[in-house]
Amino acid sequence: MSVKIRIPTQLRTLTGGEGEVAVDGSTVGQALKALDAAHPGMGERLFDPAGELRRFVNVFLADEDVRFLQGLDTPVADGQTLSIVPAVAGG
After folding, report:
1. What's the CA gap between 82 and 17, in Å, rounded?
2. Nearest 5°: phi and psi at 89?
3. Which of 45, 51, 6, 7 is nearest to 30 (CA)?
4. What is the pLDDT of residues 25-54, one digit of tens each?
């Protein structure tokens, strides 16, 4: 299944400047791992050493944070879009 992943500006150096990348995967985790396979270095920025999403990285599927769905096991349908959104902090 083809999934579109929106890439934040901070990570576009890894995608050759592309703001949106198409990958194959039937779950959020599979799609993000495919993104890393196609654009090496992405995985270390998205995943912690245990293979979970880093706490400052948010991934949305159809405007829903995947942490409130099924996490990396959240199914994605053909043509759906994932958005990677770095957390913003400060004061």
Report:
1. 17
2. -135, 165
3. 51
4. 999 999 999 999 999 999 999 999 999 999
Number of Cβ within 10 Å of residue 63's Cβ equals 7
Amino acid at 72: L
- Give the pLDDT score at 86: 86
pLDDT band for position 90 (cuts 50, 70, 90)? low
SS (H, E, C) 56-77: CEEEEECCEEHHHCCHHHCECC
Confirm if 52 and 58 have CB atoms less than 8 A apart.
no
Of the options 1.20.140.10, 3.10.20.30, 3.40.50.150, 3.40.50.740, the CATH number for the domain spanning 2-86 = 3.10.20.30
Cα gap 48→9, rounded to integer Å: 20
Over residues 82-89, the mean pLDDT reads 86
In the DSSP assignment, the letter for residue 27 is: B
